[in-house]
């Protein structure tokens, strides 16, 4: 058996933080409320902590990575809100909802990473 065929059969490791952030972005993008987004984050963190194949140190690293990315997302959303066209009330309202949801995701991820 060649190394290539053995490597081809080994399942690729899923990038859990990327997968989680994609899921959170989907919920935010569909207009999920801050509470809904926070529950999604809590579910992700709970699933990771319960996964017997994940070392808890690895889980903590994943949570910290997500928390950092969410903090960057919150800052980007705030900047976008500040730079946006305030005369477009619908866009401003949507931006405010998205920002609130991102802030809730960040808070929930921060709480999950602490404990």
TrEMBL record:
Protein name: Uncharacterized protein
């Amino acid at each position: 058996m060649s190394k290539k065929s053995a490597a081809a059969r080994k399942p690729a490791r899923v990038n859990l933080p990327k997968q989680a952030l994609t899921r959170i972005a989907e919920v935010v993008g569909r207009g999920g409320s801050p509470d809904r987004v926070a529950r999604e984050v809590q579910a992700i963190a709970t699933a990771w902590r319960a996964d017997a194949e994940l070392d808890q140190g690895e889980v903590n690293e994943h949570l910290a990575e997500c928390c950092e990315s969410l903090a960057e997302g919150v800052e980007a959303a705030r900047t976008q809100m500040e730079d946006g066209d305030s005369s477009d009330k619908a866009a401003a309202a949507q931006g405010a909802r998205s920002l609130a949801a991102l802030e809730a995701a960040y808070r929930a991820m921060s709480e999950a990473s602490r404990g």
